[in-house]
Amino acid sequence: MNLPSCWSCQYTYSYKQAYVCTFAKTKCPSCGEKQYQSKRSKLNFGLIFLMAFIPLFIVRTFTAISFPAYIGMMLLLFVVVSFLLPFCYRFTEEQKSYF
């Protein structure tokens, strides 16, 4: 798992810079070019979300886990997934839709 790099100058983002990309549009700190998440990057985000949270809903449905424990597991899973997301980003020069 590698951190993303600029599509133009191949500058490799730090973890903190890549994490900020989750919440804001990004320009490369080195060359200033706009960075857009690639189509594959967006699909990877969706797959990670599904692989992380769908099993949690299945566990809740078929077990007698208490609601506070379920919420705690969801929060823990959300934190883990949000810390792994910057490693899944890839950038392109143009904005692309999901389809």
Question: If you had to describe this structure to a student in words, what would you say it looks like?
Answer:
48% of the residues lie in helices and 8% in strands. It is built from 3 helices and 3 strands, in the order αββααβ. The protein has helices spanning 15-20, 39-62, 67-84; strands spanning 26-27, 34-37, 91-92. The protein has a 3-stranded antiparallel β-sheet with strand order 1-2-3. The mean pLDDT is 83.
Helices and strands, with pairings:
Blueprint: H1 15-20, E1 26-27, E2 34-37, H2 39-62, H3 67-84, E3 91-92
Antiparallel strand pairs: 1-2, 2-3
Helix pairs in contact: 2-3
Largest sheet: 3 strands, antiparallel
Biggest sheet strand order reads 1-2-3
| SS content category | mainly alpha
Computed Rg? 16 Å
- Compute the average pLDDT: 83
Poorly predicted parts: none
How many individual helices?
A: 3
The N- to C-terminal Cα distance equals 25 Å
Output the keywords.
99 residues; 8% strand; single chain; 3 helices; 3 strands; mainly alpha; 3-stranded antiparallel sheet
